[in-house]
Specification:
Its cofactor is [4Fe-4S] cluster. The protein has 13 helices and 17 strands. It is an alpha/beta fold. Helix 8 runs parallel beside helix 9. The structure holds iron/sulfur cluster (SF4).
Length: 427
């Protein structure tokens, strides 16, 4: 899918364009400067003056005329202030209001059914697993993968496993912390393989980072369920190690997992999840699922759906399978028709939303430290230790940015994807 992004207005709009570009690219789409070559046009509008409104309308009209075949998405201030007029403008397929801008790429993927597998389903920056921010930094500690999951191109594209020495990782974290970063996420193409080439492992790296830095919050990115290091759970006893784990399952059907050459069957996955939840209070487990892997029958799909439901994930990343040339799966027989993939993906999205709501409801009444993000211009928000988004009731000028504050979790927002909370101490 080729994407063309247009913007009008302030620097904030431009910055958003940059982050959407990164996200679209990470999901396997490409960007084009030429609207006529695009399959998808995204127009970020402005409404600061009458003139800006007029220009926004014009930009929208021109985008459609330049390429009437492309899907057209409109967002930004004009689209938020006048959603009806925006939606009825020629050729508009979708309006994304400002309050949903941060999830624009995911919303567009879902609503316009563009979900294809990203280049690497394992890299959080590409999959949008965790949001990058001024308070959170991603530290790449590892590259390459020794496994051969049949859908994955990474293993071919990235070669042997290579790990960064712990000293280098710690020095980077200490530098970022001194620059104001409050939270770091250790990531890798195959993070669980960290240390295989330097006689170490991820557990040792986590221990050293906690001991040799003062970074207030440490997270790990996507971790294959079969390679959690020894005594992993006990590391969460340290309150600086955040209780959220993204364990990609990919399918809840053992026969599909076999065709994917995954090293963790559903029973082992279940045991792992049970063990983690027993040992780590409020552990949030999230996962990736590929829908419509070649040959996925209705029976396998139902098995997968029911297993996912039993796992009660806090969030799901859902990818419709798309073949990557050079991978073994690309040569497998019985591709799943597009319409069936779409239906299955829709069913799983609904289940994902329901599980997320249930996870959020279980948090109500708790008081947790929240790292506040943003600058308050769109309200205050942040993430709990177990990576749940909270909107915080506080005055816009409360100077909460980049602070870790205690928040009482009081309700789930009507949309069901975030919590609403209040600060518990005077600001
Ligand atoms: S473990 Fe599998 S999915 Fe993950 S990077 Fe390696 S080959 Fe790809």
């Amino acid at each position: 899918m080729r994407v063309h992004l247009k913007t009008l207005g302030c620097r904030l709009n431009e910055a958003e364009l940059e982050s959407w570009s990164r996200e679209f690219r990470g999901l396997g789409h490409s960007l084009t400067q030429d609207p006529e070559q695009a399959d998808l046009l995204v127009v970020n509008t402005c409404a600061v003056t009458e003139e800006a409104v007029r220009k926004s309308r014009k930009l929208l009209g021109r985008a459609h005329r330049q390429n009437p075949e492309a899907r057209l998405v409109v967002t930004g201030c004009y689209a938020s202030l006048d959603p009806t007029a925006s939606a009825s403008a020629d050729g508009v397929d979708l309006v994304v209001p400002n309050q949903d801008k941060e999830q624009l790429v995911q919303i567009v993927q879902r609503e316009l059914d563009l979900n294809i597998m990203p280049q690497s389903v394992t890299e959080e920056e590409s999959g949008g697993l965790l949001a990058r921010g001024r308070q959170r930094a991603f530290i790449k500690v590892q590259d390459g993968c020794r496994y051969r999951c049949t859908f994955c191109i990474v293993t071919l594209a990235r070669g042997e496993e290579r790990s960064r020495p712990a000293e280098e990782v710690i020095a980077e974290i200490n530098r970022l912390h001194s620059e104001g970063i409050q939270e770091v996420v250790l990531t890798g193409v195959h993070l669980g393989g960290y240390g295989s080439d330097i006689d170490s492992d991820l557990g040792q790296l986590i221990d050293r980072v906690l001991a040799e830095s003062e970074i207030p919050r440490l997270r790990v990115g996507s971790l294959e369920p079969w390679d959690l290091p020894d005594n992993f759970w006990s590391r969460f006893d340290n309150p600086r190690f955040m209780p959220h784990l993204h364990l990609p399952l990919q399918s809840g059907s053992d026969s599909v997992l076999r065709r994917m050459a995954r090293r963790c069957k559903s029973d082992e996955f279940r045991r792992l999840v049970e063990e983690g939840r027993q040992q780590v209070p409020d552990l949030n487990i999230t996962s990736d699922i590929i829908v419509g892997f070649p040959g996925e029958t209705e029976v396998e799909w139902q098995q997968s759906l029911s297993f996912v439901e039993q796992m009660g994930f806090g969030h799901l990343h859902i990818f419709a399978y798309s073949p990557r040339s050079g991978t073994k799966a690309a040569g497998l027989p019985d591709p799943v028709p597009r319409e069936i993939k779409r239906q299955r993906s829709e069913q799983l999205h609904q289940l994902g939303e329901q599980m997320k709501r249930e996870m959020l409801e279980r948090q109500l009444g708790k008081q947790v430290p929240v790292l506040v993000e943003g600058d308050g211009s769109r309200g205050w928000f942040g993430y709990t230790p177990n990576y749940l988004r909270v909107e915080i009731e506080a005055p816009a000028d409360a100077a909460l940015q980049n602070r870790i504050i205690e928040v009482k979790l009081e309700a789930v927002a009507a949309e069901g994807e975030r919590l609403l909370g209040k600060t518990t101490r005077p600001l």
